[in-house]
Amino acid sequence: MNSILVIAESDHDIRIASAIAFGILYFDYTLTYSAEVERFWKGRFSFASFIFYFNRYLALFGHIPVLYEFYGTHKQEVSLLCSRVQMYHQLLAGITQVIVAGLQLFRIHALYHGNRRITSALSCLCLVCCAISAWAVSQAWHQPSGDKTMAGIPGVGCDLTMTEAQGKYLSFVWASVLAWDTTVFALTVYRVLGSGSRWRGSLMGVLLRDGAFYFAVLLVCHMCNILTCLLAQAVTRGISVTITNVIASSLITRLMLNLRDPRLLRNQSSGATELSDLPWRANTGPHGSSAKSTGTSSHETSEGGSSGL
């Protein structure tokens, strides 16, 4: 009886954590909606704006079916619908992380002025991480689920338990994501601290605009995912996955909005090139080659003041 009570309490905790994640997602959307209209809707459509919309609205609408997994009312049994929703949730998490990784790659490409060696090395690392993640997820799906008839709150949501073997394989997924985020974070901080450029405003402002702060938050989230997958109880092994995906999508959205901040564009036109002035993608000349940093303003590379955005 005590074990059932512990499982029920843990089940309640993971649903509370998920409710917090959904609250962050939809509240952050209301906070940034006006900025989205001003900085994206009124500009010309581009590949960068497409990626922005895809990332933003996939998170916004893609998590609606996930609500059933946590809060849907049905008989407490291993249902086909629950299995499909949980598989969908894992796929959504994977797609979200791939989108975020791609946007991080674009940002590093811009920060390093399109350096081909860095871009190629990061692309290879991204492919390796994706391959490891795909293998680990496939292994987790093929693991026996164990007894799923006693866990959870009867009649509320799907069974959220995860076996030790499933947790071990999913920890490989988050370890590969952690390796990627650590690399991106290190490259971003190195560029910020070693650029030798003059900063206007606080260092924290530069870190926020260039993504280092956001990437550090993601790094901590992925470390939490690894620890919960390996050390938490069966029902709480995935407690931080939903909030990690929400935070990842929301932070990347805010980074892209910051790069179209009118205050940043005014700074660009003032004449001094700074690290935070660099566009989302590297500047390209008329023949498609990467433009070199010349100490002059880069705002002429696009009519909006930030090429690629």
Automatic annotation (TrEMBL):
<feature type="transmembrane region" description="Helical">
    <location>
        <begin position="211"/>
        <end position="233"/>
    </location>
</feature>
<keyword id="KW-1133">Transmembrane helix</keyword>
<feature type="region of interest" description="Disordered">
    <location>
        <begin position="276"/>
        <end position="309"/>
    </location>
</feature>
<keyword id="KW-0812">Transmembrane</keyword>
<dbReference type="Pfam" id="PF20151">
    <property type="entry name" value="DUF6533"/>
</dbReference>
<feature type="domain" description="DUF6533">
    <location>
        <begin position="20"/>
        <end position="61"/>
    </location>
</feature>
<feature type="transmembrane region" description="Helical">
    <location>
        <begin position="169"/>
        <end position="190"/>
    </location>
</feature>
<feature type="transmembrane region" description="Helical">
    <location>
        <begin position="118"/>
        <end position="137"/>
    </location>
</feature>
<feature type="transmembrane region" description="Helical">
    <location>
        <begin position="88"/>
        <end position="106"/>
    </location>
</feature>
<dbReference type="InterPro" id="IPR045340">
    <property type="entry name" value="DUF6533"/>
</dbReference>
<keyword id="KW-0472">Membrane</keyword>
<feature type="transmembrane region" description="Helical">
    <location>
        <begin position="45"/>
        <end position="68"/>
    </location>
</feature>
<feature type="transmembrane region" description="Helical">
    <location>
        <begin position="239"/>
        <end position="257"/>
    </location>
</feature>
<protein>
    <recommendedName>
        <fullName>DUF6533 domain-containing protein</fullName>
    </recommendedName>
</protein>
<feature type="transmembrane region" description="Helical">
    <location>
        <begin position="14"/>
        <end position="33"/>
    </location>
</feature>
